[in-house]
Amino acid sequence: MTSSLPDVQCIARARIPTTHGPDIFLHLYTNDRDNKEHLAIVFGEDIRSRTLFKQRPGETQQDRMVRGAYVGKLYPGRTVADRDERLGYSLEFDNSTGELKPADATTWGEHNDTLVRIHSECYTGETAWSARCDCGEQFDRAGRLIAVDEEAETHIRGGSGHGVIVYLRQEGRGIGLGEKLKAYNLQDLGADTVQANLMLKHPADARDFSLGKAILLDLGIHNVRLLTNNPDKIQQVQHEDILRCVERVPMVPIHWTDDTQGIDSKEIEGYLRTKIERMGHLLQKPLNLHTQESST
Ligand SMILES: [Zn+2]
């Protein structure tokens, strides 16, 4: 791997059946930059972490199954991780290094274009039903888009069951939940998102996407169709000539294409306006859509 990126190691992977679609494979990562548990939510059993699957000295097939380094599907009584007798899949490894040898039949191709979202944790938006931001909506949307061939309302090409949501533990644009709550109070006092962060002596955006890049490369992904409205993110996801953004897939708020769906609140209008006006996000609709009388 390259020198300027963090070292990441996938330590466990598990299949998670979901309430509204295909099984996903949750990957938990450690790294040499922080002590947080960053995640990759992977759609597609054949997208394989190179660090997870690499053979380790002295390990057993049971050890490999327990950490999730298996092909196909686990079932009661299965004894071999590297071969699924029922589905007829087997993995091969380099004899000298122990590294996975990717084969078309069992491993997602390194040249495939892959739908990717790099998502930063947002406790308030994802868990506490916050209408101050659209993180929860965008997270759900990314999952739905990766699962389908095409999104019916927008005709955006989906991932047809293959894709990755990298979930980085950098709450509140990297400032942490406590500081984010203070920023919300400053916003209630009249500041916008950017001003509030600056008043708390934080940068407008303290996020770091280098971990996300290292995780994508570990998953054997080099050509990214990036789900984002943020032009900075396109640059931030590219790395030398090994990680390329081949397409930007827009994430237009659901409420703009369908008045009856998505989040509609005064707070989110202000939040999205700040994203467009202060942070240069490429949202397609003029933001004064619902607030023309008060727009600046
Ligand atoms: Zn949020």
UniProtKB/TrEMBL annotation:
Keywords: GTP-binding, Hydrolase, Nucleotide-binding, Riboflavin biosynthesis. The keyword Nucleotide-binding applies. It catalyses: GTP + 4 H2O = 2,5-diamino-6-hydroxy-4-(5-phosphoribosylamino)-pyrimidine + formate + 2 phosphate + 3 H(+). InterPro entries: GTP_cyclohydro_II (IPR032677), RibA (IPR000926), RibA-like_sf (IPR036144). Pathway: Cofactor biosynthesis; riboflavin biosynthesis. It holds the Pfam family GTP_cyclohydro2. This is GTP cyclohydrolase II. It comes from Nakaseomyces bracarensis.
